[in-house]
Amino acid sequence: MITCGFHRFGFHSYRRIPAYLLLAVWLPLYLVMPASGVEKIQIQVKKNALVHHDVIYLGDLSDIQAGGFFQQALEKLELGRSPRPGDLAQLDKQRIVTLIQSQRYLAPGQVTLACPDRVFVKRASQTLDRQRVRQKVDQMLAVRYPDREYTVSGFNIRGLKIYPSGDIRLVPDAGNLVNSRGRLSVYLDVWINNEKQDRLAVSGTIEVLSPVVCAQKNLHRGEKIAISDVKVVQKNLFDLDRDVVARPEEIDGMLVRSDIGKGRVVTMRMLEKAPVVRKGDIVSLVAKKGSLVIVTSGISKEDGFLNAAISVENITSGQEVKARVKSRSQVEVIY
User: Fold this and answer.
1) Which residue has the higher pLDDT, 68 or 16?
2) Is residue 133 part of a domain?
3) Average per-residue pLDDT in the chain?
4) Domain membership flag for residue 166
């Protein structure tokens, strides 16, 4: 509440009235007061102006000398939409004059305006360099394939254009970056000053080098592999089967299932584990019953892998029993 006297308007006593009623009475009176009683405002409009927003504001193309709220209000007067980034538009003087005169809070004669007949307005712009897009893609590939060498061929960007000025960010979508055939395909959203402006489509072909084991010589079926029989080379990951061998230690002592030519990439499908015990091997045949342990010699009747059950002939008795393979030289009778 505001206390105010109204003797000037015929009231002879003071009353306490709401502030909004006071404004309702005084504002219309203020708007029709003669110019000699209000603050002078000077507006100098430039002939050429560079704007950074979607809307052309009077403050973008003028030097305004006014006090307090007048300054803020005049600077934010809208003269229309800005041209596209990098493009030029023009405004005539009458359009600017009409806009200023239409503001009811300005008194007649309060504004001194200096304005050329035509004002040229250009929208500030910037371009997005292809190298910056490539750097963003490289960052993503480095995360996808850490500590791996890769090359990208046929790198292509669709959608590049001239953009408004401001801080640019490239934001990838959640799609798959590279498919199983090495095809690079990703969408990058272009954000400027936290507003999405565009979407780029990036494509290409990628080769990722990966260590794989290759035959150092011709390897024949049934041959036992030694580490010296193979070597490690770098091959394109997308040209390889899923079960390729990456380290020679993985296949040391395994058997060749089918012939492997010199220089060919070795896969697990080409190999099989070598049995721990071979058919015809002499082994220690161990029989355990409680604390009683009897050891004799036996002849393996078949190949056997570790912990597998095989038939073994007791050399002493000639009896054939089932035994579990415990090592290359020992099996244990199964009761």
Assistant:
1) 68
2) yes
3) 89
4) yes
CB atoms within 10 A of CB 32: 8
- What is the pLDDT confidence band of residue 4, given thresholds at 50, 70 and 90? very low
3-state secondary structure of 181: coil
Choose the final residue of a domain: 207, 224, 239: 207
Count: domains in the chain? 5
In angstroms, the first-to-last Cα distance of the chain is: 105
- 211 contact partners, CB below 8 Å, separation of at least 6: 232, 233, 234, 246, 247
- Per residue in 174-219, pLDDT (tens digit) is 888 999 999 999 999 999 999 999 999 999 999 999 999 999 999 9
Same domain, 87 and 13: no
Parent domain of 327: 282-333
| 3-state SS record for 280-310 | CCEEEEEEEECCEEEEEEEEECCCECCCCEE
Whole-angstrom Cα distance, residue 69 to residue 316? 115
**Pairing status of strand 330-333 against strand 309-314:** unpaired
Sign for the CA dihedral angle at 260, 264, 268, 274 comes to: positive
Q: What is the pLDDT of residues 166-175, one digit of tens each?
A: 999 999 998 8
Q: What is the pLDDT of residue 175?
A: 82
Residue at a domain's end among 92, 123, 154: 123
Name the helix (H) or strand (E) containing 266: none
How far, in Å, CA of 148 to CA of 142, rounded? 8
Q: What is the pLDDT of residue 154?
A: 96
Residues of the chain with pLDDT > 70: what percent?
89
Tokens of 169: 């960010």
Same domain, 250 and 230: yes
Q: What are the tens digits of pLDDT across the range 59-76?
A: 999 999 998 899 999 999
**Type of residue numbered 122:** K
Q: What is the pLDDT of residue 38?
A: 73
Domain assignment of residue 277, yes or no: no
- Return the CATH number at 187: 3.10.129
